[in-house]
Amino acid sequence: xxxxxxxxxxxxxxxxxxxxxxxxxxxxxxxSDEELKLFTKxxxxxxxxxxxxxxxxxxxxxxxx
Length: 65
Fold this sequence. Notes:
The structure is a single chain. By secondary structure, the chain is mainly alpha-helical. Helix content is 40%, strand content 0%. The protein has a domain at 31-63. α1 crosses α2. The longest helix is centred in the middle third of the chain and has 13 residues, at 33-45.
């Protein structure tokens, strides 16, 4: 019997960012079905490509008024 050593495999996926370079924090929020449908409709009709992007834009805009 021969004993062969397994070579360590590289971890898949994007490497972790340094502590100060993380994209942001996740904030869990609940919406009713009606709210989610409305927000999704508004996001699709706007220049923002995703629901998350639209929500961030709308909150930032409301906070700076």
